[in-house]
Amino acid sequence: MSHVTRVQLAVKNLNALAACLKQFDAELVLGQKQFEYFGGAKQKCDHAIRVKGTKYEIGLVKQSDGSFDLQCDFWSSGGLGQRFGARGEKLKQAYAAQLAKSYWAAKGYHLTQVTRPDGFIVIEASK
User: Helix (H, G, I), strand (E, B), or coil: what is residue 31?
Assistant: First the structure.
């Protein structure tokens, strides 16, 4: 069944989100006010994520604390689940990794990222 769901992720850094989206062949579209999902239906948002090769988009909806919720339709025909994981777990992991890399790089560390065969991301920081 197709429906819009909320990804359990509070996005507080749009630059980190935009950077991590590149690995998914996706882009953050600032100011896009609607995102598309099943059957061409549209729902309101503040920004959107457009994913090359998929039918659906992800909406970013601003919350009262200034963070953004991600809302989308993971129904299989839309392609988002295949790209980001059934509940967005690949996107959540990539965003967390990007936040960590941004933080340590700003402190002058050299970073190495390795993705293990099980999908777990390891980031090593050294001076």
Answer: coil
CB contact at 8 A, 2 and 38: yes
Please give the backbone phi and psi of residue 43, each rounded to the nearest 5 degrees, phi first: -135, 150
Distance of alpha carbon 114 from alpha carbon 95, whole angstroms: 15
Instruction: Name the token pair of 54.
Output: 């998929």
Burial of 116 (0-12, 13-18, 19+ CB in 10 A): exposed
Average pLDDT, the chain: 92
Phi, psi of 62 (to 5 degrees): -70, 135
Burial state string for 20-56 with b = 16 or more CB within 10 A and e = fewer than 16:
bbeebebebbeebeebbbeeeeebebebbbbbeebbb
pLDDT in tens, 10-23: 999 999 999 999 99
Concatenating the DSSP letter of every residue in 41-80 gives: -EEE-SEEEEETT-S--EEEEE-TTS-EEEEE---GGGSH
Angle between helices 14-21 and 89-106 (to 10 degrees): 120
Q: Do β-strands 68-72 and 110-115 pair in parallel, antiparallel, or remain unpaired?
A: unpaired
